[in-house]
Amino acid sequence: MIFYKKRFKEKLQKKGYAISSIESYVRRLEKYEQWCRLKQINKNESENKLAFNYLKLLQKKTTNHRTLNREIQPLKLYYKFFRKDNPFQFLYIKKEEQKINTNFFTKEELEKMYDDYPQNTIHEIRDKILLGFYVFQGIKSSEAKTIKLIDIDLIGYKILLKGDKRTNTRKIGLNIKQILLLSEYINIHRRTLLKRRMIDDLIVITHSKFAQQNLLQRTSEKLKKSVSGFETLQQLRASVISNWVNEYDLRKAQYLSGHRYISTTEKFIIKDIEGLQKIVDEYFPL
Predict the structure, then answer these.
(1) Helix (H, G, I), strand (E, B), or coil: what is residue 167?
(2) What is the set of domains in the chain, with CATH numbers?
């Protein structure tokens, strides 16, 4: 099997590809050519089969979809330029869909988790305030440090969560259980924690670069010891979103979650097969 590497290079130059890209494309073509030689390809062997087998070889080395597509793209172009049939034409590796952890807590379990969390010291009160945002508003960990004092509306029972590259800004209602403790924290304990510092963060911690991360980690470790089935703080957000999806329509659940796309919210729809089976057994017995 002959590959026209020089002509391939010239074609890429005419198409305006950068020198670094051309060199990279030619190297990948040479790698494929070398593999074909080592395989001692039979003239009658299908090039479609070759392409598929080469892809399987690449997948043994990596499962990263971007890396695999970078390996295949030069071969797609080469066959497009110099062959009538392109065995790589329809080979494209999609990103593996992220699986949602379905080990969710119910609304009642989340509330109990909040109720049972201690509040004997100033720091425990602060940590419980933060936990409340997870179990009632389903915040992301990255949002914990962006909540400012001005974002809390104790009169209107609302919290403003600012969006970022992945989430939209939304205003969510506060649970009645949060109000009294939040008021006490803002008017008394937060001032003590500030120690004359002038910052507008709601959750007051030390100046340490890793202080926020350490706070979340300590809270997570405490919950692992006291709450059966607890794994991560992200699990709490997923639980809240799952409960919203079951309680409201998808659009409202999407807004509350801050998801940019409805498809992200749809991933939290869990088909309750056992529940359906119980209904069938009750109303349509054999």
Answers:
(1) strand
(2) 5-82 (1.10.150), 109-231 (1.10.443.10)
